Amino acid sequence: MNFTKEISGDITIIKLSLVEASLNESDEFKAFIYDNCADVSPKMVIDLNNVLYMDSSFIGALVAGLKKVLSKKGEIALANISNDVMALFEMTRLDKVFKIYDNTEEAIKSLK
Amino acid sequence: MVVKTGNLTLEIPVQITSYRLFIDQCLEFAIENSSLGNDFKRTAKFKLAIMELLTNAMKHCKVVSYIDIQCYPDKVVVKKIDSGQRFTFKDVDTDQHYDFPIDPFTEPSKINARLGNNYTLFINIKTKNQIEFLEPPVIDYLSIDEVPENFGLMIIKQCCDTFHYNYNKVLSQNIFEVIFKL
């Protein structure tokens, strides 16, 4: 499994076991986010701890997921982003769009 | 794989199982044959650009494509070459559709090109077979609906010094050329 989820209260914590998050997994990931948007106001923390490489397709899937969650009045917070991946978020100005935290604890706290 | 002095050509598989292996091979070659490795930020951007070129190949080409790296004392030139579908775009302001070779081509002109939903990039049409991608302006999205879901060419442009698309009509080849000045 490339993605796993844990539930903590009303928050879904999604963990990526991928080192490379790319076109190969972007459709699957987008579907995974959508599948976890059944609730009203879904709250999600996405833990990117293992991800060292990310491409524009996977970033696109994250944006699509965020659009879906926001359309249901929910929230997404990202945690544990590596420096290289963070550089990608800054280049695309998505660091201003996503809520980004140093670790999952802070991300969970922000959604409570 | 073809290796000559200062030149490396790699075939891009239709499905890449490990980006990292491919990227590391390119980086290792560039570091051995140029001064690119002296700058940590530069190598990080080189890796990002290679990754995006690979994704571009897998997403759009559907045919055999290649990464070609040439190292010179003052620059590293990376080309992604394929014989797949030509690159096309629309002018945001006029909605005019552009295909290659651009006909009629009158003179170089800068336009805001639409490449997809919410996805635009400024380009300079240099000749009927060549465009240059220009530095994107700093954008602060006013709402989530404005955010694009495609970023590949924008990322490549921000990683390098110059970024061109060339259409070779004789060979029916698309060539994305990325230059890192040293």
Automatic annotation (TrEMBL), chain A:
**One short Pfam family name for this protein?**
STAS
Extract the GO molecular function terms from the UniProt entry.
anti-sigma factor antagonist activity
Residue ranges constituting the STAS domain according to the UniProt record: 6-111
Under SUPFAM superfamilies, the record lists: SpoIIaa-like
Q: What family does this chain come from, according to its entry?
A: Belongs to the anti-sigma-factor antagonist family.
Question: What is this protein called in UniProt?
Answer: Anti-sigma factor antagonist
TrEMBL record, chain B:
Protein name listed in UniProt: Histidine kinase/HSP90-like ATPase domain-containing protein
Q: Classify the source by domain of life.
A: Bacteria
